[in-house]
Amino acid sequence: MDDRTPVIVDCDLYTAFGPGVEACWNGLLQNHAAFSDCSRFRNEKFSTALAAMAPGADVNGTEEIPGFFLDYLSATAKKMPHDAELFLASTVGEIEYIDNPERRCTCDMLLERALKVCDKEHGRIVSAACASSNSAFVSLFHHIRSGRLDAAVVIGTDYVSEFIFSGFATLRALARTIARPYDRNRDGLLLGDAASIVNICSAKKAAELGLKPRAVLVSGGMSCDAVHITAPMPHGEALSEAIVHALDGAGLSPDDIGAVIGHGTGTRYNDDMELQAIHRVFGDRSVPMLSVKGACGHTLAGAGLVEAVVGVRMLETGLIPPQTSLVTPEPEAACYVSSEIRKLEKPRVLCMNSGFGGLNAVIILETVS
Amino acid sequence: MNREYPWHIIGGVTVDGLSFRTWRRGLVCTAEDTQDAKAKVSAVQDDFPHVYGLDNFRRGDTKVRTYILASILAHRDAEVDSIRETAIIDFGRQGCHEQNLDYFNDYREHGRHLGRGHLFVGTLPTTPPCEAAISLKLTGPCFYMDAFGRWPVLWDEVTNFFDMPGIRRVMICHYESDKLTILLAEPGDRIEIPDDSGPEPLVRRIFQAD
């Protein structure tokens, strides 16, 4: 680790398991799925009513969820200096306001609010569909390595709204049963609320601020399928390229990776593509793999942040949570996934996301040595 | 204040409504609609070696179509073939409110049951640059960024892309008030940019000064 090594110094989560990292982490270890019927809008016309909703987040109405989440995350954000750059990973920010134009809240308004409540001077929105969080991480990794930035707060929030729910229903991507990533009988994804935050800075800045590194961001890679706006590349070539970029960037080989947190939405196309990409890179190595979306849903732009926080806990505890709701693994996944808790044998976790547009973003986290 | 960056601009295009202007070669054309624009851009392509994929041109809205055509013209202006190792940054303030309304109104008109999928996908700000990436087979990183108009953030992000392994070109997109500017940057040489300069003033200064 040198002065410009990017290190994660703090993180927090608010998911359907409730506030705090431990609520989510314990839910994952206990193999719980946090789905329930969503009553935020009329749902009888959709194939499912299930979603993973953060308890207490909508007590003041669905429209107030982003503000509620930002208020929750602000305590962690304020641990970083005023001049730390705020990265807001988001798909869109006005989704629940379209019926009430006078209460319109666009993504940039959300960033303004985030800057205010988090007490930060400058910020930027990074949007790359469901790969937004990891794209922000990869960008930030290179900014810190080059010395252009030395401290940042990365925030990702998305929530289950009628707009998003109906959109995924339109695409026939929602599960009719339950979200079962990498399972042979999976039939789609379920959506989830999440607010997540990661404070990250150079090792030198962490020492100056007296902050203890919890994990190292050792590398990242991005790619675009450039094939189809919604369907993933059938054989996962572009995702595997992003994985290879991340490995090469850190001088690592597939043998150095202790576990993979996949995008694992539970749709047939996504999971098939991911498994092929993993197989292209890892070959017959049985690297442990899991998706948190079987437990707390697909949290869209916030997904990468949730997975990064779970990755930090995996590195800190040496444990790999079981794959929630796994019954019969997809044959191609059988050597990767498990419904049991496993030990993390190597001190690195690879996290990957893919989004509409064929966007892929991969990061690698490492134990602090 | 001026800052120096370790790359240079090789060509660019500005599209204002349906009027296209390339900056290096000075090509100007105005179309009646996006299909007419496609025909005119395709005609310009006749002496150009690369055949771009326009099979799915009609599935996008006007904004998507404009991004695709402008991306092709930017390459034409720079007299370069597209290469896979191209990153894309779409930088601006525009968001996707118009596309959000298109989708949600369609969904409402269908009884709040099912809208049209392509309209939902269009609500992502990355859809236009991704459609351009599909047409030109650009497989580098791609994202949308809004930094409240802080232009040095954009230029730093271009530099950042060139720090990533394998990236040989960056396509810079900026859309504002129906006006799209797309520039192509390559590493090497150096460029000095005032902190208050966005893409169009920059490319205008570079090529009109030649």
Please render the helix and strand layout as text.
The complex is a heterodimer of chains A (369) and B (210).
Chain A: E1 6-15, E2 18-19, H1 21-29, E3 36-37, E4 50-51, H2 65-77, E5 85-89, H3 107-118, E6 123-127, H4 132-146, E7 151-158, H5 162-170, E8 194-202, H6 203-209, E9 215-224, H7 237-249, E10 259-261, H8 268-282, E11 289-290, H9 293-296, H10 303-317, E12 319-320, E13 342-343, E14 348-355, E15 359-366
Parallel strand pairs in A: 5-6, 5-7, 10-11, 10-14
Antiparallel strand pairs in A: 1-2, 1-8, 1-9, 3-4, 7-8, 9-15, 12-13, 14-15
Helix pairs in contact in A: 2-3, 7-8
Chain B: E1 2-16, E2 19-22, E3 28-30, H1 34-44, H2 62-78, E4 86-91, H3 97-109, H4 117-121, H5 127-136, E5 142-146, H6 151-163, E6 169-176, E7 179-194, H7 199-208
Parallel strand pairs in B: 4-5, 4-6
Antiparallel strand pairs in B: 1-2, 1-7, 2-3, 6-7
Helix pairs in contact in B: 1-2, 2-5
Description:
The complex is a heterodimer of chains A (369) and B (210). Chain A has 369 residues and is α/β, with parallel strands linked by helices. Helix content of chain A is 30%, strand content 21%. Chain A has two domains: 7-209, Thiolase/Chalcone synthase (Peroxisomal Thiolase, Chain A, domain 1, 3-Layer(aba) Sandwich); 215-366, Thiolase/Chalcone synthase (Peroxisomal Thiolase, Chain A, domain 1, 3-Layer(aba) Sandwich), CATH 3.40.47. The longest helix of chain A is centred in the middle third of the chain and has 15 residues, at 132-146. The radius of gyration of chain A is 19 Å and the shape is globular. The model of chain A has no long low-confidence stretch (mean pLDDT 94). Chain B has one domain (2-93, 128-208): Peroxisomal Thiolase, Chain A, domain 1 (3-Layer(aba) Sandwich), CATH 3.40.47. Helices cover 38% and strands 27% of the residues of chain B. Chain B is globular, with a radius of gyration of 17 Å. Strand 6 of chain A pairs antiparallel with strand 5 (142-146) of chain B, so a sheet runs across the interface.
